[in-house]
Design brief:
Elements: E1 17-19, H1 26-32, H2 36-41, H3 50-66, E2 70-76, E3 79-93, E4 98-105, H4 114-130, E5 134-139, H5 144-152, E6 156-167, E7 170-178, H6 181-189, H7 198-201, E8 208-210, E9 213-215
Parallel strand pairs: 4-5
Antiparallel strand pairs: 1-2, 2-3, 3-4, 5-7, 6-7, 8-9
Length: 248
């Protein structure tokens, strides 16, 4: 599979800017993964070190070159040296139009809407530029914060994957979410609609029924062949290795 390239110019909003990881980010990543919340949902049972962070940077570059993953640091839009967390596309299968999306946030970055904006930016770009048909997320049944993020951003819960992944010496189930369910919801609300562009689906975040009409908002963006590509969603994923841009 062909390597994945970082967007140019960088994806950015008024809260976050997505950029590649840097060597200078190592201390900040180690500090972020010492947070009790991160440790609770992390797959690790040992402290996260600077060596771990550097190994992760090397692994993510190898995954990018293979076309499997694309990992970003979440930086402040006005100060790119400030790392707020991470976001990633992973398990990318372009031949199947599939990928998963995940994020994590440093303790001081929570409550600002940083993860929401970051994943919307990344997912909108992925649908427009990579031609995705499905974007998926999983998170731990006990991670209510991540589930709330997913639901606020238009993902529908599809079920529980029992004994899904190894977790701290045992196994853990995962709640699975995807925006695909919005397609049938949109079609039922608008019977005359013959097709639904998947780029649009995740932007039905503000969907509501008012006076018998389905109303939604989207943020247009120039996509392939100049088409307008509205934005997408927010999500989470379990943390197998701290630094993997996954929240479990």
């Amino acid at each position: 599979m062909a390597e994945l390239w970082f967007p140019v110019p960088p994806l950015a909003g008024d809260v976050v800017l997505l950029r590649p990881w840097r060597e200078a980010d190592v201390p900040g990543m180690v500090l972020a993964f010492s947070d009790p919340v991160m440790q609770r949902f992390s797959w690790r049972t040992t402290p996260y070190t600077e060596t771990d962070a550097r190994d992760y940077f090397a692994e993510q570059e190898e995954a990018r070159l293979r076309g499997d993953e694309l990992n970003f640091a979440l930086a402040g839009p006005h100060d790119q040296d400030v790392v707020l967390g991470g976001v990633s596309l992973y398990e990318v299968r372009l031949d199947q139009g599939y990928a998963a999306v995940g994020y994590w946030l440093a303790a001081e970055a929570r409550g600002r809407g940083a993860a929401t904006q970051a994943v919307r930016l990344l997912a909108r770009w992925a649908f427009a530029e990579l031609g995705l048909a499905r974007l998926e997320l999983t998170c731990g049944p006990g991670n209510e914060a991540s589930q709330h993020v997913a639901e606020r951003c238009g993902f529908s819960r599809e079920g529980l994957l029992r004994s899904h992944v190894p977790f701290k010496g045992a196994r853990r189930g995962s709640v699975i979410y995807a925006p695909v369910a919005w397609v049938s919801h949109l079609r039922s609300a608008m019977p005359g609609l013959k097709s639904v562009n998947p780029i649009l689906v995740g932007d039905i975040i503000a969907a509501s029924s008012q006076r018998g009409e389905l109303r939604f908002s989207s943020v247009p963006r120039s996509g392939r062949a100049g088409r307008q590509a509205p934005g997408f969603a927010d999500s989470c994923r379990p943390v197998r290795t701290p630094g993997r841009c996954r929240a479990g």
